[in-house]
Design a protein that fits this description.
The structure is a homodimer.
Chain A: E1 5-8, E2 11-16, H1 21-24, E3 34-41, H2 43-59, H3 66-78, H4 84-94, H5 103-120, H6 144-164, H7 173-187, H8 192-204, H9 209-238, H10 243-264, H11 272-281, H12 292-296
Antiparallel strand pairs in A: 1-2, 2-3
Helix pairs in contact in A: 2-4, 2-5, 3-5, 3-6, 4-5, 4-9, 5-6, 7-9, 8-9, 9-10, 10-11
Chain lengths: 301, 301
């Protein structure tokens, strides 16, 4: 039953719907599902995150020079977690791959998220010599110069991990290059950086309500949505998915990211129709994997 | 005649030595060469730099969103130039490759140098809320937040360029992955970032003269030397060089970078013996390429 388990902040929320999601997308309005909320994180989701963390702890050991690796280790695990790395592994398994084929990509996505978060909170002086006012206050464990440098070290390290994950037995070098292109594009001028500019502009201008909502949507499209789309597409690419599977999962990831970003910005009302669009992208996987329910759980209710 | 043309700040300096460099490395001290200084940049070096610039201008067009691409374009070309990208192309041609096989790697190295330079000069507030004092003053064309973001966009873009340069006709994906590993390592925790930490520490401590020289050497090893070694090795890898050729050119690049870094730090006296070590690495290429003289020109007199 697609869409049976929805996901709220990492905890599973079981919905018993009287109709299957497949047919639900053709009917409007759907009957409201019965909701039973549990307090346990989804076990599949928890197992993926635990594997990613173990992989990264091995990849960033606490070794010499400690002045480099200690902040790298700390800042990687101190950044707020996202569902992007786990979505990447899920997509890989959904197309029939083994999660280890996408482990480096999932870890790279976690690292890049940590670098972005670290740099986003650096206290910079503006061109008029004024201290920053708009940035949210967070605890800085290190001198900002160290945090800037560490972020700069984490970004290439993410690409190194990915490039090193080539497995001659699977002849996956072209898959890895494709994943590098996907990730570098979404982190660069066409994705997160453009989104950050838009976020900065949005925070500096005041407009009407509709205009405000549209502006938030543009920011979310370039940030959370683009990153989730990239994560899901990379997982599908590295798992050996077909072009159709890759594009379906990319769209699924995009919708999941849109929902998350809009909810975080207080626009839950805008997300209702997106859940159905997202679940529709998973229909081709129905009956082909026991994980369809789990991956559909990424949608925030 | 290896070592016939030496290179000072991009301009050729022709040395007429009474002995070939090959035999000179076995004799000490060498007779001082006669020196005729010209005012023209070395034509081979100039042609490589011109090709890299043309490639990058095409890769970073002035297109929408201009708020992203305009600073990216400006900061890429505003950073002080290094000889690393041209050395990369030279190494590629020296092992028998075509310069276009290494063009993306050379451009990636230029981009990463620009990102490092941009971030190195950001005005950050330290943990005590104090404005920076030690950083050299440079003109900031943009708000520091924009410069931070642009640097963060340039780094993944460098890897994107490289990953996209796969040419199925040459089946070069494994070469490209190897170059990505080389570049990401040297830019990350084991290279430039470690070097930047060491530079920061060196600028904050005061010691004896010998200690000071040794400290500068450690910094140069991780910065200029490691980057030139990486550039030369990547060129050789992408040009299809043998393992011996790759390692010889890596060592040559390392020595070239050491010389440049030490000269920039006022330690020209420390570089004399390094030139001979560098030229020795080029001996296996003698008679195999008309460019041996040109590549030996990278050594600063």
């Amino acid at each position: 039953m697609v869409g049976a388990i929805l996901h709220i902040n990492g905890f599973s929320t079981v919905h018993f719907s009287p109709i299957s999601n497949h047919s639900r997308t053709n009917l409007a309005p759907p009957k409201p599902p019965m909701l039973v909320r549990t307090t346990q994180p989804h076990p599949y989701w928890a197992s993926l995150n635990s594997d990613i963390e173990a992989y990264l702890k091995k990849a960033i050991p606490m070794k010499e020079p400690l002045i480099v690796f200690e902040p790298m280790h700390h800042l990687t695990f101190a950044a707020p977690r996202t569902t992007i790395p786990a979505l990447c592994l899920m997509a890989c398994e959904l197309v029939g791959g083994d999660r280890h084929q996408a482990m480096a990509a999932a870890s790279a996505l976690l690292l890049l998220n940590a670098a972005t978060y670290t740099h986003e909170h650096l206290p910079l002086i503006d061109n008029r010599g004024l201290k920053p006012k708009l940035k949210p206050m967070i605890h800085h464990a290190y001198d900002p110069n160290i945090e800037l440098l560490t972020g700069d070290g984490i970004i290439p390290f993410a690409f190194e991990l990915l490039a090193r994950s080539q497995d001659p037995a699977h002849n996956s070098s072209s898959h890895i290059l494709r994943a590098i292109i996907e990730i570098s594009r979404v982190m660069g001028s066409k994705g997160v950086i453009d989104g950050q500019y838009k976020k900065k502009l949005a925070s500096q201008t005041i407009g009407g309500e509709l205009c405000h909502v549209e502006r938030i949507k543009r920011v979310v499209e370039k940030n959370e949505a683009a990153l989730h789309a990239c994560g899901a597409a990379c997982g599908a690419i590295l798992g050996g998915g077909s072009e159709e599977e890759i594009e379906r999962l990319r769209k699924y990831g995009f919708h999941v990211g849109m929902i998350q970003g809009l909810v975080q910005n207080g626009l839950r009302e805008e997300t209702k129709w997106i859940s159905n669009l997202a679940l529709k992208e998973l229909e081709i996987f129905l009956g082909r994997s026991r994980n369809v329910d789990a991956i559909s759980a990424f949608i925030h209710a």
